């Protein structure tokens, strides 16, 4: 999936609308101000610009996928300090897994790309 900036898309479209507005003939009114002489074309362009901007703003969004790491769960070490099992906790949402089976969190979807606490890496 490719992601683009909604704001940049709107800016790009506006840039071309401004170029189109420059092509509408102008005239000088009674007060000496420069005004558009083709209001029908002007209003059409403004309406189209508004529609396109509205459509872009309504496009579906996707959240950027976050990165996290598995945290070794130390409470699995018993009273005699024997390690009797492993579990990992997602650094982002706290979801706990019994074993390091995933390179992503099944609960929040975070990619486990960050360096872990080191204990887990030694198991690989
Ligand atoms: Zn998570």
Give helix and strand order, one letter per element, not per position.
HEEHEEE
Structural class: alpha+beta
Bound molecules: zinc ion
For the terminal residues, how far apart are their CA atoms? 31 Å
Average pLDDT confidence is: 83
Q: Major sheet: order of its strands?
A: 3-4-5
Q: Could you describe the largest sheet, including whether it forms a barrel?
A: 3 strands, antiparallel
The total domain count is 2
What is the strand tally?
5
Tertiary shape: rod-shaped
Continuous helix count: 2
The portion of residues assigned to helices is 25-40%
Work out the strand percent: 5-15%
Segments where pLDDT lies below 50 for 5+ residues? Answer: 118-124
Question: From the alpha-carbon coordinates, what is the Rg to the nearest angstrom?
Answer: 29 Å
Walk me through what this model shows.
The chain has 124 residues and is of the alpha+beta class. The chain has helices at residues 6-21, 39-58; strands at 26-28, 34-36, 70-72, 88-90, 96-97. It has 2 domains: 6-58; 67-121, no CATH class. The chain is built from 2 helices and 5 strands, in the order αββαβββ. The strands form 2 sheets. It has a 3-stranded antiparallel β-sheet with strand order 3-4-5, with no helix packed on it. It has a two-stranded antiparallel ribbon with strand order 1-2. A hairpin with a 5-residue loop joins strand 4 (88-90) and strand 5 (96-97). The two termini are 31 Å apart. 6% of the residues are buried. The structure holds zinc ion (ZN). Residues 90, 92-93, 95, 105, 107-108, 110 line the site of zinc ion.
């Amino acid at each position: 999936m490719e992601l683009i900036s909604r704001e940049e898309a709107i800016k790009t479209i506006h840039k071309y609308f401004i170029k189109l507005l420059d092509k509408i003939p102008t005239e000088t009114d009674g007060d000496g101000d420069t005004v558009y002489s083709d209001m029908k074309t002007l209003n059409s362009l403004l309406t189209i610009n508004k529609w396109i901007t509205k459509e872009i703003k309504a496009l579906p969004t996707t959240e950027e996928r976050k990165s996290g790491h598995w945290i070794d769960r130390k409470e699995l070490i018993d009273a005699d300090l024997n390690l009797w099992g492993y579990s990992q906790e997602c650094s982002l949402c706290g979801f706990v897994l019994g074993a390091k089976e995933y390179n992503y969190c099944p609960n929040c979807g975070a990619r486990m790309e960050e360096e872990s606490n080191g204990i887990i890496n030694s198991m690989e």
